[in-house]
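fyi for ur records
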Amino acid sequence: MSIWWSLHLRREAASVPLARRFLLGTMETAGVDPDISFDLSVALSEACANAVEHGGDHSVRESQGDQGVPQDPWDVWDELPGAASGQYQVTAYLDGEKCRIEVADSGPGFPARRALRASALQRGTQQHEPRQYPPLSAEDGRGLCLIEQLADHVHFGNRPGRGAVVSFDKVLKWRKDALLMVS
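which gave:
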């Protein structure tokens, strides 16, 4: 047996604990080891917080309709494709020995990074630039680093013209009474 679910959430701070609780409930019911569940839930919280903060236009549209009535700011589900959106999507797959989680938003995406150092290019080698971590005193910027530390594999990518995607997976450990391991 495997479990797959997807949530479409508003880009609001209250959606972060909702997604986290949904994941923890699913994993507890399935019989995933609590330590693995905790690591994945923290990584999910960081990815969701990033989508809430950076995943689109924070301003409420103030345009007037035909009858002079302001648009409903809660009407985020009816926005045009490609427009800055007030929502993001969380998808989780639990299957066998792995859990994969994806968080996709409709913001500007991740900034382009230099994949190769100039000195490595000159030498003809392909060494990746060392990861720059924010200082411990920084108020933000540690979420993506935390996801990298908690998950086994992480991918940060952009969907051209449609936002950013953070996907990560982790090998699962199971309790003896695990539902997924019964079948």
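The longest strand covers residues 2-10. thats all i got for now
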